[in-house]
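Form 7-S
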Amino acid sequence: MKAITKTKSIETKNIVYVGRSIDGYIAGKKGELDWLDIIPGSDKIDMGYVGMMAEIDALVMGRVTFEVVLNFGIEWPYKKPVFVLSNSVTEIPDPLKEKVFLTNGSPQKVIDQLHTLGYHKLYIDGGVTVQQFLEADLIDEMTLTTIPIVLGGGTFLFGELSQSLAFEHVESKVFLEQIVQDKYRRKRTV
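Output:
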């Protein structure tokens, strides 16, 4: 009798984890992010970020987000490899050369390259980058944390899409009686 062997497929997942205002902005009109901590104590609690970071293999972020993180004036906050999508940045600062890598191309090309390198669970970060990955239907899960503020303008999380994308609501959590976090998973037809 011939033995049947199953090859174990590698799980892939592209995750968005982002804070947003009630009106859907992820940064203010001048790129400001200070509003993310307007609720006293919110900077002292983990809202699932540590668990999400433990789950992923690497981050994919846009150039603008990379530059914002560089300007935080703190030690580089990521322990996982970071791949920066950019056509204009040509060099990574010396202290980050072993931690941050430049890439470019379509979202699918980037995903394929990272899978080849062994990175299968990815955190997708940055407004335009998230929009591009949504347009390519490459987002599997979104955790959206809503801060109770209306910014009235800035960097919007979502853009126009050529087709609708259905997600199922997985869970909601409330932090400090004011911050609402919703987790969604992409509904795909097989």
